[in-house]
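pls design
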């Protein structure tokens, strides 16, 4: 091993926006990277990156990927709202258990579990909040509940390797098909709306910041002040929902950046979200509006960034406005 090499890092779920960004950040930090996911990560053409194709629910696949590994970033998860509880439990709970067990047997030096702020969000406003304990009983929806169970599993007192749970909050950036893609698609279709005027303050995380924080967590997990704890990662720049949405729409150039955002009162929106979920359960497709979406658009959710920044010895490098500028440049090239 050369002096410039950190060691061998396994990234589960190395495909997609955050997965690719984590792999790139890890390579830049000096790691040799192994990725594990069902399809090629798209990063293996780089030096120091190897793809292993397989599932986190298959012990033989995970064991093969774990050979010679010094640290793990466990990112693979089933996301979204579609699917049965068994679908989410299989990947997010059982899969996490399989990866953690294999990492324990391998004796890795650090295990970073990628979680979600939704594991502790029960619908109340979060204003300068801390990373409260995961609460599977009150978490909303299959995704949040399964991720809460997984976080409890990896942070259990019986776990014998250094583990930290990182909860990236609303990750976005160029190429994002989730937050950015959905906002832009709805704006283009004339279906974009706000709840109660979009006044609620929310924080977000630019993709490069999220990836770099996760790689930094690999170094910090063994520290007694970090090990066994959960931290929320964000830009630390809360803004009104309206400002965030208008900035994204403007970066995409929809309507030359001018879109009339209609506002819906929270009460009727909640009723519509409940009905939309029921219809979607029969139709098998994502509804236009859900109760979770209503909560996200009408309830403040931003976190005190200081505990995370102090624990990880990390600061976000790309501010919100710079991220929007990068997003605009990406759309102009697309």
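designed seq:
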């Amino acid at each position: 091993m050369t002096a410039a090499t950190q060691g061998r890092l396994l990234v589960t779920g190395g495909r997609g926006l955050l997965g690719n960004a984590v792999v790139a950040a890890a390579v830049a930090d000096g790691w040799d990277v192994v990725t594990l996911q069902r399809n090629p990560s798209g990063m293996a053409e780089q030096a120091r990156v190897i793809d292993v194709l397989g599932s986190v629910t298959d012990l033989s696949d995970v064991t093969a990927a774990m050979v010679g590994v010094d640290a793990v970033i466990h990112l693979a998860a089933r996301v979204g709202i579609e699917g049965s509880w068994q679908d989410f439990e299989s990947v997010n709970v059982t899969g996490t258990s399989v990866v953690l067990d294999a990492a324990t047997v391998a004796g890795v030096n650090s295990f970073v579990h990628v979680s979600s702020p939704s594991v502790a969000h029960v619908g109340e406003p979060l204003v300068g909040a801390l990373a409260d304990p995961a609460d599977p009983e009150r978490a909303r929806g299959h995704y949040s509940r399964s991720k809460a169970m997984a976080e409890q599993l990896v942070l259990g007192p019986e776990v014998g390797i250094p583990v930290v749970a990182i909860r990236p909050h609303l990750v976005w950036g160029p190429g994002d098909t989730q937050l950015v893609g959905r906002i832009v698609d709805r704006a283009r279709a004339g279906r974009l709306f706000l709840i109660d005027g979009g006044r609620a303050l929310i924080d977000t995380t630019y993709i490069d910041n999220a990836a770099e924080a996760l790689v930094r967590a690999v170094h910090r997990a063994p520290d007694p002040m970090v090990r066994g704890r959960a931290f929320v990662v964000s830009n630390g720049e809360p803004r009104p929902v309206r400002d965030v949405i208008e900035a994204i729409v403007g970066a995409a150039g929809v309507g030359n950046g001018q879109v009339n955002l209609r506002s819906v009162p929270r009460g009727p929106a909640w009723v519509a979200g409940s009905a939309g979920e029921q219809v979607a359960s029969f139709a098998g497709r994502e509804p236009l509006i859900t109760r979770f979406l209503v909560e996200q658009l009408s309830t403040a959710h931003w976190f005190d960034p200081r505990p995370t920044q102090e624990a990880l010895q990390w600061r976000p490098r790309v501010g919100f406005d710079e991220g929007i500028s990068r997003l605009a440049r990406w759309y102009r090239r697309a």
